[in-house]
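seq:
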Amino acid sequence: QVQLVESGGGLVQPGGSLRLSCAASGFTFNNYAMTWYRQAPGKEREWVATIYSRSGGMTGYADSVKGRFTISRDDTSNTVYLQMNSLKPEDSAVYFCYVPALNTWGQGTQVTVSS
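struct:
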């Protein structure tokens, strides 16, 4: 079955970096766009970034993360990454991997930015 497993979250100080990973299985990974969302306590889930398939790795970012976050994918290992730099307290949230075409979510990984 389709499965997405996120990892790499944790506690980091403001200005620090983290790299999230999402390992995918159960579908032909390189055929699908992959997306990261996040949800902070008391807030709606919000889109963070998307990377398209077989289009030169075209990407898109929410304005709130543009220039600080980078989404990438490795089609040989069926993994999508989110490199997060210059982290701010407002980036604290549970981060989810999502396949829009399959409407499938991962379980999420917690990111906390705090001193």
